[in-house]
Amino acid sequence: MKLDQLAYIVIGSSKIEQWRDFGVKVLGTMSEDGPDGALYLKYDEWHYRLLILPDEEERLVAAGWSVRSRAAYRAALESAKAAGLEIHEGGQAERRVRMVQEFFRFVDPNGSPHEVCWGRTMSAVPFVSPVGVSRFITGDLGVGHVVLPSRGAFDECVAFYEDVMGLDYSDFLSRSVAPGKDVRAYFFHCANGRQHSLALAEVPEETGIIHFLIEVQTLDDVGRAMERAREEDAPLVRGLGRHVNDSIVSFYLQSPSGFHVEYGFGGEVMDWTDHEVRNISYGTYWGHEWQPGFAPQIPSGKRRP
């Protein structure tokens, strides 16, 4: 496959109205009701970037990847079939909800669900943040990134992302958590300049997703989001800090479904022609302190002088 971007994220939730409030009042997205109780959260020219579907449990339904044309889609579909994947091609009702021409679904070796689509729907309504966010950084870089948990098939999944999904290494992190035991997180990019669109981490998460990133244009946008989170009682998971691999300045919130949302700005746009894959060995230059009540997932350390 050749995937152009992480185009959307689909979440199943029993807390649709909480997600609406969280999206509009905290994240700064627009919202719109969809078919069969679905909720669209919009933050650029596309009809949505986050799709929340009614569900009895809180879970990742899919990381949605896009390609640019029907020919590229057919090539991706044939590649998935040739790899022996069990494929589900979306029916008319599913395509209607996702507002795409076609999509197919598969799971990776850890059981995490993915979709590949073409023919997404642009919105006729210009995006205007209801709380004044200046701009979300999307476009050809995609929606942001998603971090998925490993369920015991870490090495198999790494090979799958490379050999089947066609993603490339960005960087990787390995931290010692006990004598003789390391925790790993590997970062992957697709055919654009975002430093990573997908990461895999050796930590458990019942919802099937550890966090996703939303990137905004300015530090002021980030600071105002922190103030809105406090005003709306959205739990702060990690304080403000700066990551090493993608240079994002960000903080983390707990979503209505329980997993985390990273909210940041300043992500480096990569030129992959001269990039050297690195073991970054530490996750953050400064900050990102875990808040009371939240246990660290990956002891990322800090870079010291």
Automatic annotation (TrEMBL):
First and last residue of the signal peptide: none
Ranges annotated as spanning the membrane: none
VOC domain residues: 5-119, 142-266
Lineage: superkingdom: Bacteria
Name recorded for this polypeptide: VOC domain-containing protein
Organism for this UniProt entry: Streptomyces graminofaciens
